[in-house]
Amino acid sequence: MRYFIKFSYDGSNYCGFQYQPNKRTIQEELERALTSINNHQKTKVHASGRTDKGVHALGQVAHFDLNIEITEAKLKRALNSNLPSDIHVILAKKVCGDFHARYMAKLKKYQYILNLGEYNPIERDYVYQYNYQLNIKAMKKALRYFKGTHDFRAFVTESNDKENCVRTIIKANIFYDKKDKKKIVIEFEGTGFLRYQVRNMVGILLRVGQNKILPKQVDEILKSRDRRKNGVTAPSLGLYLVEVKYPKNIKK
């Protein structure tokens, strides 16, 4: 029986989502919990995508197959009982046998949070403590160049000469946090994102906000498809996978 789960996690103490030998990861913790629930049979978890070290999730999605009969409510309780407190299953559902969390995902939403005010040590693992003012108006102008379908090769950290780097960004926005006007949120919603893409886009927006480059130069860098013309990768700790969307006809 195939199951779908929606879950959140604090990525501060993990080396990312994907399993890595001798390193603590979200996938490892999920598979350990599921193996215990699934009569100690090794259970593989397939997520909508991986997140990097220190990145958080509010609405990550995954699927897996179990050999036991268990209700959705009991599965959710069992998972949360077996998982560490910094990972939490929000929803568990039975799905069709051909459902795939990664390949059927249609849209993903990410948010990057920055504090422009006084340094806050309590939030140092959850909000990028930039602690200086930025030219938000210029950043909003630059942000418009990311919308649409583009080759984002200039915003991928590794060399991807052979990889298809074409992605579509449906929405991109910058706004002040309603609860704390000293914080800004940079939001992207798209069909998919390459590794480090969001953090690299935030990095170039920061250069615009610092008045080091003009907004139109972001378009020039994007069209160049040359990673060397980009800037610094923004820290992982301010990044959140907020939501993963699927077609309405998928039963989950």
Tag the structure with descriptive keywords.
252 residues; alpha+beta; 10 strands; globular
- What percent strand? 25-35%
- String of helices and strands: EHEEHEEEHEEEHHE
Counted beta strands: 10
Question: Could you estimate the helical fraction of the residues in percent?
Answer: 10-25%
Alpha carbon gyration radius: 19 Å
- Specify the structural class: alpha+beta
Terminus-to-terminus distance: 13 Å
Average pLDDT: 94
Biggest pleated sheet = 10 strands, mixed
Assembly context of the chains: single chain
Concise description?
The chain is α+β, with helices and mostly antiparallel strands. It has helices at 26-37, 72-82, 136-143, 197-209, 215-224; strands at 2-9, 46-47, 56-65, 87-95, 107-115, 128-129, 148-151, 166-176, 183-190, 239-245.
What does this molecule look like?
- The protein is of the alpha+beta class.
- The protein contains five helices and ten strands; from the N terminus they run βαββαβββαβββααβ.
- Strands 1, 2, 3, 4, 5, 6, 7, 8, 9 and 10 form a ten-stranded mixed sheet that branches.
- A hairpin with a 6-residue loop joins strand 8 and strand 9.
- Helix 3 packs parallel to helix 5.
- It is globular.
- The chain starts with a strand and ends in a 7-residue tail after the last strand.
- The mean pLDDT is 94.
Task: Detail the topology: elements first, then pairings.
Elements: E1 2-9, H1 26-37, E2 46-47, E3 56-65, H2 72-82, E4 87-95, E5 107-115, E6 128-129, H3 136-143, E7 148-151, E8 166-176, E9 183-190, H4 197-209, H5 215-224, E10 239-245
Helix pairs in contact: 1-2, 3-4, 3-5
